[in-house]
Design a protein that fits this description.
The two termini are 22 Å apart. This protein is α/β, with parallel strands linked by helices and 223 residues long. It is elongated and about 60 Å long. The chain has two domains: 2-117, Response regulator (Rossmann fold, 3-Layer(aba) Sandwich); 127-221, Winged helix-like DNA-binding domain superfamily/Winged helix DNA-binding domain (Arc Repressor Mutant, subunit A, Orthogonal Bundle). The model is unreliable at 119-125 (pLDDT under 50). It has eight helices and twelve strands.
Length: 223
């Protein structure tokens, strides 16, 4: 999952970015409104975290412009503003949620998960499956034939990315950019190492390889 964080306080930006990456998210950071707006319009993000007070353009202005341009990704405001009028203004601008600073990371993480599930608390969780393999985003668990499989954060993120795009070939560089958050020329050999480890943990054989290699291109999850 790819998140854009617009935050001009370096300490908060580092804290949120590190926490989300430890949870398996890929995170881009911008420290001012114009840069963040340009990034959000240049590529699709799964979710955006906007500070209210940003240099150049406020988070409120960025939110309004994104919605006007048809960007539909969930937006959560991170802000010290705490009046009812401010909350209403943020929601009217197109934000999906609002969390006040200072906040506990666990609360932010759960609010993000709710937005990415597209459902409220208590409703069905977001799951992806290929063959007998089931990945549950909310609980961060993977099962095969009802047996739980223990994966590392990166293995889980890699499997989630492939299952979210099931049936479509995922190019190697695209996987690296979204799972490892690396946006430059990079030796993608590390991907093969993780894929081999993932297949081993999932006990995939040549006969039931649900994560198939497309030589010279990338990988695809197929039933």
């Amino acid at each position: 999952m790819h998140v854009l964080l617009l935050e001009d306080e370096p300490g908060i930006a580092r804290f949120v970015k590190q926490g989300l990456e430890e949870e398996g998210y890929a995170v881009d950071v911008a420290a001012d409104g114009p840069t963040g707006l340009a990034l959000a319009l240049a590529q699709p993000y799964d979710l955006l975290l906007l500070d209210w007070m940003l240099p150049g353009l406020t988070g409120l202005e960025v939110c309004r412009q994104l919605r006007a341009q048809g960007v539909g990704a969930p937006i959560i405001f991170l802000t010290a503003k705490d009046t009812v009028a401010d909350t209403v203004a943020g929601l009217q601008a197109g934000a999906n949620d609002y969390i006040r600073k200072p906040f506990h990371f666990a609360e932010l993480l759960e609010r993000i998960r709710v937005q990415l599930r597209g459902v409220g608390p208590g409703q069905a969780t977001e799951r992806f499956a290929v063959g007998p393999i089931v990945l549950d985003v909310a609980t961060h668990r993977v099962h095969k034939n009802d047996e739980e499989i223990t994966l590392t954060q990166k293995e889980f993120a890699l499997l989630e990315y492939l299952l979210r795009h099931k049936g479509r070939v995922c190019r190697r560089q695209s996987i690296i950019e979204n799972v490892w958050d690396i946006h430059f020329e990079y030796n993608t050999g590390v991907l093969d190492v993780y894929m081999n480890a993932l297949r081993k943990k999932l006990s995939l054989s040549k006969e039931d390889d649900y994560l198939q290699t497309i030589r010279g291109v990338g990988y695809v999850a197929r039933d």
